[in-house]
Structures are given as C-alpha cells and as structure tokens.
Design a protein that fits this description.
Number of helices: 0
Oligomer: single chain
Shape: globular
Radius of gyration: 17 Å
Number of strands: 9
Distance between the termini: 28 Å
C-alpha cells in the first residue's frame, strides 16, 4: 500500500528565512535571486500595495507572502528578530541566548530572565 507524504511549504512554518531589511519602500535596482525583504510602510514600484509582506526575488519577479500571526524572522541589517502579531511586525525581546532554555509551555526559547526569544518548529531525530 503506498504511503502519502506531504511536503510543507515555506509559508506554513512559523520561522521564516531571514530578510535583508524591513524598512525599504523601493525594490533594489539589481536584486539577486533569493533576496528577501519585509516591504516598508509606503511601497513603490513593483512593491506597491504590499506593505508589511515578505517579498522574495525568484525567477526575475518579486513574489509576496502575506505574513500570518506568529511568523518570526531575522532582519539582517538590524541583527534582530521580529514577530508578526497579525497586525504588524514587532521587535522580539532581545535576551542573552547563551543562557536560553527550552520552555515546554510556550514551545519556544526563553532567556534566563524568562523573556520569550524564539519559536521552535523543529524535529528531533535520534540515531542509535
């Protein structure tokens, strides 16, 4: 009997791939395949009408994902994590990750002071 396998798509994960910036309103002039951004609040050009969405350059076109509540991404130019609340992107509490522990109640990582730092969506594999 064949087994059905489902492959999740990127937009179904809470953690999203990092983005370069979250404040740009105008698309870069010479984007590279795979470039990712959170579109700024007053977008122009190819980004018009897509404020707050994650955009990525693929097959010479800007593609857009509508963020879901709980999405988490790293913004490279700030070196910080942001989480989508369902209404917009908010800065995550910045804690000391060297003292982070797994919090089984929130299914995430909290710092030593108890601040929520990151959501975990991981599969743990154990090999003999």
């Amino acid at each position: 009997m064949p087994t059905n396998r489902r492959v999740p798509t990127l937009e179904t994960f809470t953690y999203q791939q990092p983005v370069f910036d979250k404040d740009l309103n105008t698309p870069p002039v010479t984007p590279v395949e795979g470039d990712r951004y959170i579109v700024g609040p007053v977008p122009t050009g190819a980004w018009t009408g897509h404020a707050g969405k994650i955009t990525y350059f693929y097959l010479a076109v800007w593609n857009f994902d509508v963020p879901a509540e709980g999405w988490l991404t790293h913004v490279n130019d700030e070196d910080k994590f942001y989480r989508h609340t369902g209404a917009g992107w908010v800065l995550m509490p910045q804690g000391d990750m060297t003292k982070a522990v797994y919090d089984t109640n929130d299914n995430g990582v909290v710092d030593a002071a108890g601040n929520f730092v990151a959501a975990l969506n991981a599969v743990v594999l154990t090999f003999p």
